[in-house]
Amino acid sequence: MRISRFLTGSLVALSSVVVACGSDSKPAATTGVRASGAITVFAASSLTDAFNEIGTAFSAANPGAKVTFNFGGSSDLVTQIGQGAPADVFISADDSNMKKLVDAGEASGTPVSVAKNTFEIIVEKGNPKHLTGVADLAQPGLIVVLCAASVPCGKGAATILQNAGVNVTPKSLEDKVKGVVTKVTTGEADAGIVFVTDVTAAGAAAGGVEIPAAQNVISNYPIVVTKEATNVPTGQAFIDFVASPAGRAILAKYGFLAP
To answer: Which residue of 73, 156, 166, 215 is 20 to 30 Å from 82, comparing CA positions?
Structure first.
């Protein structure tokens, strides 16, 4: 069986966030579909806060449904699904990792874009190093952390540095964007390049330095039901909810751009 090849199930369980049915929260709107049963959604880590709220709203609109989230780097999630991880829905923070899933025959149907995102320099609270742009990341002695090239935030950062003509040697390469955020907010690093939404989610714990549009990158967020989904109707209902006005309003609240 495919599931026997999945060796990281316990890690998925530990990293998952469960949104239980019967929430007291009232949905802003419903899609008209009454979904039921449990689904597991594998989602890019930059969606953590937005999807937790969307999951609560979806469960309130569909009291018989339960959503479990596994958040991580998009490339890691594709690998987990390929190894047999039980995922009903996958959403990537870029097109290339979704293409990997589709090319591997692990998608059911055609992916739908539900949001876009762009990048910003994340700095410590108060911007003590007084950074003003991408060129400042090359300052001697500045501790910079970036995402690994295999994940969307790493690919985006590499393109931004290339666009700006800046060479940076990062102290570390993180496997997901939350790793960069954590190192900056805890003082282990001075700066990094992350999604705008991650700077927003960090709140008062961090600051952001804008990256000009000419240097910046826009990342697409496609979503799809997986080939091995055990609850296709509820998985599709969840996607429909994310793409609905109610779902898009929540995404916009956390700084995501319209698809």
So the answer is: 156
